[in-house]
Design a protein that fits this description.
Elements: E1 5-12, E2 16-22, E3 28-35, H1 42-59, E4 61-69, H2 95-102, E5 106-110, H3 111-122, E6 131-136, E7 140-146, E8 149-150, H4 180-184, H5 186-196, H6 205-209, H7 219-227, H8 231-255, E9 259-263, H9 267-270, H10 274-284, E10 294-296, H11 303-316
Parallel strand pairs: 1-4, 4-5, 6-9, 9-10
Antiparallel strand pairs: 1-2, 2-3, 6-7, 7-8
Helix pairs in contact: 1-2, 3-11, 5-8, 7-8, 8-10
Length: 317
Amino acid sequence: MSINKKIIAVDIGGTNIRVAITNSDGEIFKKISFQTNGNKDISIATENLISIVQDILKKNKILGVGVSSAGPIDPYTGIYNHSPNLSSWHGKSMKKDLEEATKRPVFFGHDCTLAALAEVTYGEFKNSENLIYVTISTGIGGGIIMNKNMVTGNKGSIEIGHMIVNPGGEKCNIGCIGCLEGCASGPAIVKLTSKLYEEYPDEDILKKMTNFDKINLTTKKIFDADIKGSMLSRKIVKSTLNHISTGIINLLNIFDPEVIVLGGGVIKSISRYLPELQSMSNTMALPGHRKTPIKITSLGEDVCLLGASVLVAKEII
């Protein structure tokens, strides 16, 4: 590829869309972001995205556009299929509009699958042949690289976050009962804490940290209060780690990866518990999987953007 040609990488989430100018070496030259609302029609986000992309095209030689998106999404058509955080986009796609507006090839992928692709391309475990990436944030998702290939399933989008880890437990936004996302995502952690809030005395440190009003709960405050001795937070953190470790154990036993990499906004709070999470997984996984490392991504919040860039490079270069 000519050193003058770059790639446009897009990362679509439930509340924000990020756009970056990148190249096939994993360099990011510029990032732009704007708010989006998955409860509004996809056309609004499409128009805003096209405006930004067309401006980039005026000033740069662009090879193609890679789009990483929260799913479920068909990577071949870009059509959404009951995406919990982009609910109004069901059955719709922006792929054709983007291609017509940019006159460039546009490639779509599930955000976590592309994150896994970025990890084996640029991450700490670069060149791994078998790797699983799990993001824990507003939702929970995962991407799998097996024998150097992306695992996409029949319809192009696997949803690790909806594996059942607590039968009969909390529902996620699309109604899965007891799934990982419903039990351990950021909103789920806050929701579960809120339900127990009034059962604990005002002396509990978490209640003091939230000014005795559960409307002030955040995942960060919940995890920080655990370190400071909150009994309420300890119960929630212990439950959260148990559900996450159950999900990790299932992935270890089924897929036999070389490593599991964790990312997402909630991971910033969970990172201090990584040894505990590793120990819980080691205890319950099959003996042959108990030494599989569980690591925090070294690529930070740009992991999906980098994955979208790699996707374009793989398809074109």
